[in-house]
């Protein structure tokens, strides 16, 4: 995805993030999030039916099949795809801005963390509405919604536009720290691998 000079531009960073987000949504995030959301909702109900996490997974698959772990797949793909696309776009843009005309200019890990936090904040504001929809589609009351679009329309009609930003502040703190740490670790691991594999 890099150009002839080895530089990854923002558009290509966006596409890389989008591809990574869609892949992680299908393979890992959707089944894990669906089970997590159902388990949390079950545990807060008057009569919980799941005795533990693994019992919950077994019961969901037994009663609903593997499909039961993939509720809200469209919303999850949209959320994860946009999530990573925004993060990679912002991170790539900031890195390229900082490096300017010198692609070999080193970036301090703290600056990488700052750029990661900004990328995390951008992803929170950019896709919290999709996260709200995804969570509704995966909850125990998911049967209320015919589709992702139906869910979005019902939220808008019954709760208004601000409902799409529920949980933004707590999510902002967690995601900014998370993305900052992930990008710092990623950059440091890449440096080590470049030395080990003698790619520089």
Automatic annotation (TrEMBL):
Topological category with respect to the lipid bilayer: Multi-pass membrane protein
UniProt subcellular location: Mitochondrion inner membrane
Pfam name, any one: Mito_carr
Keyword Transport annotated: yes
UniProt KW keywords: Antiport, Membrane, Mitochondrion, Mitochondrion inner membrane, Repeat, Transmembrane, Transmembrane helix, Transport
Coiled-coil features, chain-numbered ranges: none
GO MF annotation terms: antiporter activity; citrate secondary active transmembrane transporter activity
SUPFAM superfamilies in the cross-refs: Mitochondrial carrier
Catalytic activity: D-threo-isocitrate(in) + citrate(out) = D-threo-isocitrate(out) + citrate(in); citrate(out) + (S)-malate(in) = citrate(in) + (S)-malate(out); cis-aconitate(in) + citrate(out) = cis-aconitate(out) + citrate(in); trans-aconitate(in) + citrate(out) = trans-aconitate(out) + citrate(in)
Main location as per UniProt: mitochondrion
This protein's GO CC annotations: mitochondrial inner membrane
Single Gene Ontology BP annotation: neuromuscular junction development
Solcar repeat spans: 11-97, 107-192
PANTHER family tied to this protein: SI:DKEY-178E17.1-RELATED (PTHR45788:SF6), SUCCINATE/FUMARATE MITOCHONDRIAL TRANSPORTER-RELATED (PTHR45788)
Functional note: Mitochondrial electroneutral antiporter that exports citrate from the mitochondria into the cytosol in exchange for malate. Also able to mediate the exchange of citrate for isocitrate, phosphoenolpyruvate, cis-aconitate and to a lesser extent trans-aconitate, maleate and succinate. In the cytoplasm, citrate plays important roles in fatty acid and sterol synthesis, regulation of glycolysis, protein acetylation, and other physiopathological processes.
Family note: Belongs to the mitochondrial carrier (TC 2.A.29) family.
Protein name, UniProt field: Tricarboxylate transport protein, mitochondrial
Species of the source: Parambassis ranga (Indian glassy fish)
Lineage: Eukaryota, Metazoa, Chordata, Craniata, Vertebrata
Gene responsible for this protein: LOC114429699
